[in-house]
Amino acid sequence: MLGDSITESDIDKVIDILRDKLGVNSDRALAMELGLSHSGISMSKKKGTLPYTSIVATCKQKKISLDEVFGIDVDQTSDNSSTEEKPTKSEDASRNSAEDALAAIALVEQIIDDLLYSKNLDAERELLIRKKLTPMLIEKTFEHNFNEVMVKTIAEGALFMAF
């Protein structure tokens, strides 16, 4: 149904399918179901567009296939259905990522503590510096493969520039 351009009849078909799937009868009820203002659907029709963000969000929430809504024929006979969730990472890899993140945070906090201890700053100034440095240093920790010397050198340079 949907190709390079969308026609008025395509918009009407999508709206009719959405009404049917969501169990509503009017444009106003459909707009409210999609989280739009009461005139959202009629405005979309006038503009010749669809509120794609709202449609996708509602279909995801209500577990409605976007293929059905937009009239796309999909071969459902294959074992690898597009609606099945496929794991993107192994459980071990995601656990390592969390452990790496915690290790990076600990390393950065240790480095900042060491560098700021001798500065004798007031609390507000120290919190401001920590707030600004921490995200950058965590990123640099991963960039330099947890090399403490490199991260500490970067932190010292940033502190030198701050004073």
Automatic annotation (TrEMBL):
<feature type="domain" description="Bacteriophage CI repressor N-terminal">
    <location>
        <begin position="14"/>
        <end position="69"/>
    </location>
</feature>
<feature type="compositionally biased region" description="Basic and acidic residues">
    <location>
        <begin position="83"/>
        <end position="96"/>
    </location>
</feature>
<protein>
    <recommendedName>
        <fullName>Bacteriophage CI repressor N-terminal domain-containing protein</fullName>
    </recommendedName>
</protein>
<dbReference type="Pfam" id="PF07022">
    <property type="entry name" value="Phage_CI_repr"/>
</dbReference>
<dbReference type="GO" id="GO:0003677">
    <property type="term" value="F:DNA binding"/>
</dbReference>
<dbReference type="InterPro" id="IPR010982">
    <property type="entry name" value="Lambda_DNA-bd_dom_sf"/>
</dbReference>
<dbReference type="InterPro" id="IPR010744">
    <property type="entry name" value="Phage_CI_N"/>
</dbReference>
<dbReference type="GO" id="GO:0045892">
    <property type="term" value="P:negative regulation of DNA-templated transcription"/>
</dbReference>
<feature type="region of interest" description="Disordered">
    <location>
        <begin position="75"/>
        <end position="96"/>
    </location>
</feature>
